[in-house]
Amino acid sequence: MPQAVLRPVGDERHRAATARLLDDLAALSPDAPVRLGKRTSNLFRQRTTDSTRLDVSDLNHVIDLDPVSRTARVQGMTTYEDLVAATLPQGLMPLVVPQLRTITLGGAVTGLGIEASSFRSGLPHESVLEAEILTGDGEIVVARPDGEHEDLFRTFPNSYGSLGYALSLTIELEPVHPFVVLQHVRFGSLLDAQDAIGEVMRTRAWDGEDVDFLDGVVFSHHEIYLTLGRWADSVVGQAGPSDYTGQQVFYRSLQQRERDVLTVHDYLWRWDTDWFWCSRAFGAQQPLVRRLWPKSKLRSDVYWKIVAFENRHHVMARLDARRGKPARERVVQDVEIPLDRTAEFLDWFLREVPIEPVWLCPIQLRRETRVVSGETPWPLYPMAPGQPYVNVGFWSTVPIEPGREDGDVNRAIEDEVGRLGGHKSLYSDAYYDEPTFDRLYGGAEYRPVKKRYDPRGRLPTLYDKAVRRR
Questions:
Q1: What's the farthest any 2 CA atoms get from each other in the chain?
Q2: Where are the alpha helices (DSSP H) in 156-294?
């Protein structure tokens, strides 16, 4: 099937969209709280309050793309699906393409994003060259690694719109090849898998072959797979690339075959078709249901809408209650664990939390990231330069046992992650008290930046957004 091709819209259209947004903002009371009116979301935090929403529907395009310098200027609400549709025809892609199609570039930068290239390319915000940001004070500033707005540039990642919104971002791109060859390597122990991750992160190779992409899946204590991907210019040894956008389910292929190959487009979206494995909750992996399910609707944003409907109306929760089943706690989290404590965390998690499988995504800050002596390069998510981590992702619900409360499992996970020196992403439920949150997420550097760029408090604080759900 031919893939969509999108062309840059040019700076004039961007300026017009920005002007309309500023007009909408000027029409509000100077002290009115403000939020963006987004069409898509990949957050799992339900808000307890609402605010005036600015229409950003026309800030979702690639502005320009330079194949020579390998850079692109992109509006903040542009989804990675559309961004990739513009870059792949030029033989390029962003250095990190988060795994779900409707994640926006602005969302990945201000809320963090990862993928299988993160073991070599870090986080999406590390490839940002400059950011055009609408601040809480209603000003537009251009933030760069150096200069007047360096403080905003460094604290913008993981600020979740509490300091301002990205109108446009200029990012680095990297060359692609037509195919990605995959090797699924099974390990029988968590420690063996941890050691293998460390070797690949150090050498960017395995068994004499280069490794360009690295992630994995844990099915149990004794069934762990690392998927090692490398670029390829041709398909060798099989009829053609595999297709996991129809009847076949990608994560099951890890258990069924040692080698595989995908087109670069299908590799980037391999997890989106079944929302990793979460589509099974909707019956979409049952053969009969899958044959009837429209292929175009096998995608993460469709499943997210089903979840959002359930969160609003609680249809299944009421049915389960009538059947005498216990209420369930949502456990949807991504956590970063230092590599040398990853097996320890996974051992605890598999014993204490009834969720499987879980995703592994090794990650470390880019070697090119500029670090000022004594400073954390990205203070709101303070990963240590030179320190390898493993992102562990788990997305499901668990029964609330007698004598327990909703949130108890998430709190236990937060405690264990903290004990092991890790962090967790803030796109979902968080339960930290404010002093602990302040310590973990760069409060000392966040507060003066918040005061400078949002002095009237028109935007919620990061703690309000992440924990209080405002």
A1: 65
A2: 190-203, 250-256, 264-268, 287-292
Q: Tens digit of pLDDT for each residue in 92-129?
A: 999 999 999 999 999 999 998 999 999 999 999 999 99
Report yes or no: 230 and 153 within 8 Å, Cβ to Cβ: no
Q: How far is CA 388 from CA 65, 115, 123, in A?
A: 32, 15, 13
Tell me the pLDDT tens digit for each residue of 213-272.
Answer: 999 999 999 999 999 999 999 987 666 899 999 999 999 999 999 999 999 999 999 999
Give the Cα-Cα-Cα angle 196, 202, 208 (nearest 5 degrees): 70
> Would you place residue 375 in the very low, low, confident or very high pLDDT band (cuts 50, 70, 90)?
low
Give the DSSP letter string of 260-326: EEEEHHHHHTTTTTTTTTGGGGGTTTSHHHHHHS-GGG-SHHHHHHHHHHHHHH-HHHHHHHHTTPP
Contact status, residue 399 vs residue 326, Cβ threshold 8 Å: yes
For residue 73, what are its two tokens? Answer: 């200027």
Write phi, then psi, for 366 (nearest 5 degrees).
Answer: -60, 145
Q: How many CB atoms lie within 10 A of CB 234?
A: 9
List CB contacts of 277: < 8 A, sequence separation 6 or more: 249, 251, 285, 357
Determine which helix (DSSP H) or strand (DSSP E) holds 82, and give its type and residue range: helix 80-87
Q: At what angle do helices 342-352 and 408-419 cross, to 10 degrees?
A: 160
Helix (H, G, I), strand (E, B) or coil at 427: coil
Angstrom distance (rounded) from CA 464 to CA 265: 38
**According to the model, what pLDDT value does residue 317 have?**
83
Tell me: pLDDT of 373 over 50: no
Contact yes or no for 143/149 (Cβ under 8 A): yes
Question: Where is 219: in which H helix or E strand?
Answer: strand 213-220
Cβ atoms of 263 and 182 within 8 Å: the answer is: no
Helices (H) and strands (E) in the chain, counts: 16, 18
In CATH terms, is domain 11-175 a member of 3.40.50.300?
Answer: no
The single residue listed with the structure tokens 């909703």 is 406
326 has pLDDT over 50: yes
Q: Say what angle helices 300-313 and 315-322 make with each other, to 10 degrees.
A: 60
Contact 63, 73 (CB under 8 A): yes
Cα–Cα distances in angstroms (integers) from residue 339 to residues 110, 117, 217, 398, 430, in the given order: 24, 16, 15, 26, 23
Residue 265 CA: distances (Å) to CA of 85, 113, 160, 245, 272? 9, 18, 28, 11, 12
Q: Residue 226 has which token pair?
A: 């690392």
Residue 464 per-residue DSSP state: H
What global pTM score does this model have? 0.94
Rounded CA Rg of the chain: 22
